[in-house]
Amino acid sequence: MFADRAKIFIKSGKGGDGHVSFRREIYVPNGGPDGGDGGRGGDVIFVVDEGLNTLSDFRHKRKYCAEDGEPGGKKRCHGKDGADIIIKVPQGTIIKEAESDKVIADMSEPDSKKVILKGGRGGQGNQHYATSTMQVPKFAQPGQSSKELQVTLELKVIADVGLVGFPNVGKSTLLSRVSNAKPKIANYHFTTITPNLGVVDLENGKGFVIADIPGLIEGASEGVGLGHEFLRHIERTKVMIHIVDAASTEGRDPVEDVYTINRELAAYNADLAKRPQVIAANKTDAIFADDEDPVQKIRDEFEPQGIKVFPISAVSGKGLKELLYYVYELLQTVNPEPIVFEQEFFPEAIDYAKLPHTIHVNEDGFYVVEGPRIERLLGYTNLDSEKGFAFFQKFLKDSGILDELIEAGIQEGDTVKMYGLEFDYYK
Asked: What PROSITE patterns does the record tag this protein with (predicted)?
């Protein structure tokens, strides 16, 4: 089964922690700090692989994590950087933040390579914190935290022209006649369940890319049938060819079919229904009515609206040349730039250090305060020094934690716990 949507978890690597150590050499009784820096965490990188055409690989693996950076070592040794993780996707894949459904990146270029999550920066060793007044720093900077996201991947076929229409109207037959594509063709509904791409070559080097999209039924914009799978792939196309069964071999009205398709396009994305359209009145070789010309009926309905109608037979090839050259000329009137989805969500703007903290009372009656910013602060603050403890007290006040502890009912003498730190509360 064709897979054109997947949801995965991605996580960059945490930066390695800086190291605390001091020179210990013979004849050097009071060596200075020599703790090395931590390594950088690995990035999460998406790249386009032109050998892929589905997202089926993501059905079996849904978690992708880059490596953490290694901590620094003695003698100013720098920790090893974490390895990046490379995630390969087909051309045309859209990466979205899962909760907001906002676009992070559009992998529409054949050589696209995007860093979606950057790894954490390595922490500095204690060698960086020696000063004239603090010659023996006993603390180092922790590595910057990793970043993580739930993302959805959506594959949207890249084509200039999309063939749209109800099942069994002849889209695959037309594609096989006018391009190098070899779609599966059979006389039953939903023969096509995967988009088929083909290149139409005209004279003098002219041509365009055309896509046969899975058949549409009423209610597609609400996900009925192949609904969203159909509509997702039509979003990049610049011109649409509506193929209808002019002979009504299955009893449907071709005029109503076009209106139904346009309603579904507008319901899914209002911009789709505004794009240039052409109607290909197919199966004219199967029209035997003497009293009424069904093609003329279609023309009378849509040509006053500016939509050109071409009678064709995908089986015999009749009328195809006129249709294709008209479509080519129509393409010259639209913006030649590929349809690219602009970025709406910026992972680098997420400041994990500013995520909210929490306060709760545990079973021992301790007031437990937790949060990324607090954990990071404790990692590089020397609470054994007077200056370090004063800085920590100022942080508790400025961040509002002291006020929140009072609101939570803390009394003098109660114990506050923050990760590995415990202290008694006094005003």
From this structure: G_OBG (PS51710), GTP1_OBG (PS00905), OBG (PS51883), OCT (PS51881)
Pick from 329, 321, 330: nearest CA to 277: 330
Class at the top of the CATH hierarchy for domain 1-155 = mainly beta
pLDDT at 190 over 60: no
pLDDT at residue number 10? 93
Going by pLDDT thresholds of 50, 70 and 90, the confidence category of residue 195 is low
3 state SS of 284: helix
Binding residues for GTP: 165-172, 190-194, 212-215, 282-285, 313-315
pLDDT of res. 184: 44
- Tens of pLDDT, residues 62-109: 899 999 999 999 888 999 999 999 999 988 899 999 888 899 999 988
pTM (whole model) above 0.70: no
Backbone angle region of 182, left / alpha / beta, with phi > 0 → left and psi within -120 to 50 → alpha: beta
Kindly report the average pLDDT of the chain as a whole number: 82
How far from 412 is each of 319, 416, 418, 421, CA to CA, in Å? Answer: 90, 11, 17, 18
Distance CA(209)–CA(255), nearest Å, equals: 27
Contact 333, 275 (CB under 8 A): no
Query: Where are the strands (E) in 253-382, listed by range?
Result: 277-282, 308-311, 358-361, 367-370
Distance CA 203, CA 122 (A): 59
Q: CATH assignment of 161-331?
A: 3.40.50.300
Q: List the beta bridge partners of residue 88.
A: 47
Q: How many CB atoms lie within 10 A of CB 256?
A: 12
Domain spans of the chain, in order of start: 1-155, 161-331, 353-424
DSSP structural state of residue 71 = P
pLDDT at 24: 77
Which CATH code, of 3.10.20.30, 3.40.30.10, 3.30.450.20, 3.30.300.350, is assigned to 353-424? 3.30.300.350
pLDDT above 70 for 215: no
The structure tokens 């006040």 sit at 397
Residues 129-145: tens digit of each pLDDT? 887 777 778 778 888 88
**Which residue ranges are tagged as binding site for Mg(2+)?**
172, 192
Residue 377 tokens, joined: 């602060």
pLDDT in tens, 9-46: 999 999 998 988 888 776 666 678 888 999 999 999 99
| Alpha-helical segments (H) within 197-293 | 227-234, 254-268
The annotation places the binding site at 165-172, 190-194, 212-215, 282-285, 313-315
- The dihedral built from the CA positions of residue 395, 398, 402 and 404, taken in this order, carries a sign that is negative
